Amino acid sequence: MKQGILSVIGNTPIVELTRILTPSHFRLFAKLEAFNPGGSMKDRPALNILRRGLETGVITGDTVIIESSSGNMGIGLAQACAYFGLKFICVVDSKTTIQNIRLLQAYGAEVDIVSHPDPLTGEYLQARLDRVRELVSITKDGFWPNQYSNFDNPAAHHKTMDEIVRSLDGRVDYVFCATSTCGTLRGCSEYIRDRSLATRLIAVDAVGSVIFSTQKARRLVPGHGSAVTPPLFNRDLADDFVLVDDIDCIAGCRRLAQTEAILAGGSSGAVITGIERLKEKIPYGATCVAILADRGERYLDTIFSDAWVAEHFGDVFDHWKSKTEDPECATVAS
Length: 334
Ligand SMILES: Cc1ncc(COP(=O)(O)O)c(C=O)c1O
Description:
Distance between the termini: 44 Å
Strand content: 15-25%
Structural class: alpha/beta
Bound molecules: pyridoxal-5'-phosphate
Helix content: 25-40%
Radius of gyration: 19 Å
Order of helices and strands: EEHEHEHEHEHEHEEHHEHH
CATH topology of the largest domain: Rossmann fold
Strand order of the largest sheet: 1-2-10-7-8-9
CATH class of the largest domain: Alpha Beta
Shape: globular
Number of strands: 10
């Protein structure tokens, strides 16, 4: 019998997708990270960082965990802190959804809201990180997990990749994963390189993010992409990369819901669109895996809201419907 909620982090299911890319000359599997108890793959690094800290004594019962996150990492940490009985302050910004703030609070986290972006860069991320440093400096026994540069973040994803390889009996030709801190990318890459596997790792970044591109631009879909280049990033971690803009990421999410009945978050839509874009490069008979990072319920008022999409992107629905007439494309309807 498994003891405690944290014991069911990881070992998420993997399923074959047979409807979304038809016709297809390769097999596509989805690693469903939404099945982690906190709803995303960030449960893995959240637990690993805290567990390491507790094992090494860096974290004790009196430690206050302080981290910047407007979404999944915050929820993963809030869950693990609640279980370990640790106080957690999550620094969010005024763009954070009410639902995520409520989730954090439901787990007992204290939410500290940054209401102005950094005056120099115009970025909320920078302002949040500055606030974390300030809180750590004034808090007795404060600990900053620092997901952007903590190597216990990628280390948690060695297991993600191990689960993928084992569930497909070692036959994995391509893995597509979304990037932000680059924890997933680095962890999967280390696993592949350490074992000299032939698996090709493809990073999916957002248009406007400064991980694989330098062209910073406004992005509305949270999760993947970053406004600062993460210290965990290294161009060689990925064999190739693809940049997906917000609207194509939303289209990917909707296709996943309508064709495969998988309600997943923004980065999952980006991963699906990324695979479609690169499909001509994928050899006949290959086995591909899409890591789908989180649940779609957190995006009902944005990605899955027609009103929100129309407000921010105009009337894109006709464009999507015209794609349904193209036999190469799976269906997308508003
Ligand atoms: C939904 C979603 N997708 C992708 C990512 C990127 O993962 P990583 O930080 O491991 O690069 C995140 C990170 O928070 C995320 O929340």
